[in-house]
Amino acid sequence: MNTLQIAHLLSKILGNKGINYYVCASNELHEIKLKKDIKKTKFVCIVNSDESSSQGTHWLCFLKKSDTVLEFFDSMGLNVDSYGKYFTDFVNRMNCHFQFSRVRIQSLNSSLCGEYCLYYVLRRIEGPNFDEVLSTMTINFHRNDEIVTEYIFRLVKRERCLKKKFRIIVVFKLVKI
What angle do CA 11, 26, 159 make, to 5 degrees? Predict the structure, then answer.
């Protein structure tokens, strides 16, 4: 998925939920202007591990759903420190408890990291807690790709919010798996 596809889907899903959302490259994290009282700001930030001058390698996600906890989701199970100064500076700016996924749920051959981020965010917005969302995944990476792809495909179909071209990409990924 690319930046525009992720942002468009987030706008359709989160637009009326009172949650700010951002999609950016790693070097743009410092540009995110949150409300004055950061502790009370709810937001989603799906960020690429690369800088904006690069093509993009891996999508990651920050979610702040409560006043006191910032969540970091990486389908590869790495800590925010693995991604460098832009990420650690962003976490420090939030000045709250930090939680991150420690288990890899995506195979190294999969290119669905954007879909994994959307799956995580949208499931969390539905209600399940951090661990409950991650518990929907298995140790079978191929099966995890299917779970995520099917969920996003159903969501896109239900919302009918993306162009036909994007639906074709999702269908292709379903067939490819």
Answer: 20
The distance in angstroms from the start CA to the end CA of the chain is 16
Q: Name the CATH code of domain 3-176 (choices 2.30.29.170, 3.30.460.80, 3.30.1120.10, 3.40.395.10).
A: 3.40.395.10
Q: What DSSP letter does each residue of 122-152 carry, written as one string?
A: HHHHHS--HHHHHTT--S-HHHHHHHHHHHH
Task: In whole angstroms, give the CA distance from residue 95 to residue 177.
Answer: 40
d(CA 47, CA 7): 11
Q: What is the pTM of this model?
A: 0.84
pLDDT one digit per residue (tens) for the chain, 177 residues:
888 888 888 887 777 777 888 899 999 998 877 655 455 678 899 999 999 999 889 999 999 888 788 999 999 999 999 999 999 998 988 888 889 988 999 999 999 999 999 999 989 888 888 889 988 999 999 999 999 999 988 877 766 544 444 443 444 333 333
